[in-house]
């Protein structure tokens, strides 16, 4: 317990260094939403939960009552994921949805602590092909490909999945608050 708390505290002390990347990412997302575009999000496991949480805070509410914001987590339908996974392969479960839903000017956020999730990387490639702004939330593991696949990246300075996910939760809340402010609701 002590070790986990110490790692958490040390990591969160380093998050100040991500402030510029977080602010820039919030600006990109707010600009897209202001134009009438949407935010698509994807991730696996705990990162899928973070993607759904992010979408819920924007489509529902975060700190302030405001109009609903167009945010969709691509991991939300078990039927859709199993259909695409069965027919095309699990690597395509997010890219196929980006092809169906994404339009130029939308933003696509991919969450992957390792930066090596094949289905998230495929979604980023599809998003770039379709003119979406691609954003990665990841960690700093060896072999991380997500940072290279995105227009913007927020890379948590850690290699442990649990610590990266803890930081992603904080970053999601920071982004939601900044987006609300930039859209005049804060």
From TrEMBL:
Pfam name, any one? SIS_2
Kindly list the biological process annotations in GO that this record carries. Answer: carbohydrate derivative metabolic process
State any single GO MF term.
Answer: carbohydrate derivative binding
Keyword flag Isomerase: yes
InterPro entries assigned to the protein according to its UniProt record, in alphabetical order: GmhA/DiaA, SIS_dom, SIS_dom_sf, SIS_GmhA/DiaA_subfam
Q: Which UniProt keywords apply?
A: Isomerase
Domain SIS, residue spans: 29-185
Q: Which domain of life is it from?
A: Bacteria
Q: Which organism is it from?
A: Aquabacterium olei
Q: What is this protein called?
A: Phosphoheptose isomerase
